[in-house]
Amino acid sequence: MTEATTLPLRNPRTGQSDGELPVTSAAEVAALGVALRRAQPAWADESIEQRCQRLSALADALAARREGFLDTLLADTGRWHESQIEVDGTIAAIRRWVQQAPACLAEKPVQQEAIPFIQTQQTWVAFPVVGIISPWNFPLMLTLIDAVPALAAGCSILAKPSEVTSRFVPLLREALEEAGLGEVFALVTGAGATGQAVIEASDQICFTGSVATGRKVGEACARRFIPASLELGGKDPALVLSDANIEHAARALAWGSFVNGGQSCMSIERVYVEAPVADVFIAALVKEAAALELAWPDPKQGQIGPVIAASQVALVRNQLADAKAKGARALTGGELIDHGGVWCPPTVLVDVTDEMTVVADESFASVLPVIVVADEAEAIARANNTEFGLSAAVFTQSPERAQRVARQLQAGGISINDACLTGMVQTAEKQSFKLSGMGGSRMGTASIRRFVRARALLINTGTASPWWFPAA
Ligand code: NAD
């Protein structure tokens, strides 16, 4: 069977195909890998300050094309407000790395060891080619979030964004050329086969996407003995405890569950609320949810954009049907709306059980099941009763209770009295638990250490060797 050379592009607002995406063949990806490997040593030889100058130039080049990026992201994702946050947040993240990277990568001076004539020096060696494979929900941000620290570390980059949302690629190539990064950053387009070719051509992989694909990526990397950072799916719980500020919790959770139409890895997808405050919390949440409007027909009006990926439509529809068949009630929303493209109105579900797919599986949509629990212990146990462990949220007015509960949750980022802070605050280190991923922290300064290998220089300053073996 001959491989497709193009893939159809779909506009999620209309549901219509309105363009074609070129598919980079495996041979082309391999050739790019060779060119990147050839260019990388000179890039790594530049000082960290020189590399950061070019990253600053990249931030400038993105800012100069802000409107263009917004247009491509709007065409691919159908949403406007989140695209602004995405472009501005990406530029800000690059500027933050420019500030932080030099200190992170500074080599330590030569150390005297306990043995008087032995000294050591710790050095870092960048991986030559870092492959990036990214998803469709924040296409630009999730293509650059790992690429920028890797570039700062001295790696070259081979990136493949999602085939669902690659319209920004030509503009990003232009910005990379302008910043003088064209030789060390190649972008390819296509679906899974192109992704596999990226793995074959790389020395390390940063993958963001579903657990199912992450498993394939992890297996392919293991076969090649190359490290893989896997940032995967979640089913993030929020715990609303009896002493929470209920109005505040409802507002935060409506935002944390429905922003970007729920299509964020750190979206809240389950709420466990203690019985004494359940009725008042549910009423407040429903009020917040019902006040949100679809961003239709004008993408600049309303808060809820379309379901971005066509493949998501059936998944969400099936989860809603399964929940209703098993006795759940939608207090607002509950049905997908077809405007050509498909919208999921903010949906609050009650009378849900753990057997429903909407409670057990990732939804990646603006659907929020609310489960009433007897007490804090039940809330913690049920929040942890999942194969995922990305993030979570706890609402209580007691700082001690917040600490006690947060420390028992099996997830890498816990927002306290807010939701989804892990998406907004990128300085604190966090790792994924359970099937939500593996690898070092993508956040905080530790992120950059993923892209270098430690090399020790072990120096004998003048004693005859082998000094460690008794003379004959
Ligand atoms: P996906 O797994 O379907 O695809 C992700 C990427 O992998 C795409 O670029 C795709 O082309 C590529 N791919 C597909 N098959 C491949 C293969 N066999 N080998 C190599 N690459 C392959 O995910 P998606 O639907 O694009 O994104 C949604 C998922 O991403 C959700 O599960 C969401 O939770 C997750 N996500 C996680 C984070 C995080 O930081 N943890 C962030 C955003 C999204």
UniProtKB/TrEMBL annotation:
Domain Aldehyde dehydrogenase per the UniProt entry, residue ranges: 5-455
A Pfam short name: Aldedh
Protein family according to the UniProt entry: Belongs to the aldehyde dehydrogenase family.
Protein name: Aldehyde dehydrogenase
Active site: 231
Alphabetical list of Gene3D superfamilies matching this protein: Aldehyde Dehydrogenase, Chain A, domain 1, Aldehyde Dehydrogenase, Chain A, domain 2
GO molecular function, one term: oxidoreductase activity, acting on the aldehyde or oxo group of donors, NAD or NADP as acceptor
Region Disordered, residue ranges: 1-22
Superkingdom assignment: Bacteria
CDD domains membership: ALDH_DDALDH (cd07099)
Keywords noted in UniProt: Oxidoreductase
Stored PROSITE patterns: ALDEHYDE_DEHYDR_GLU
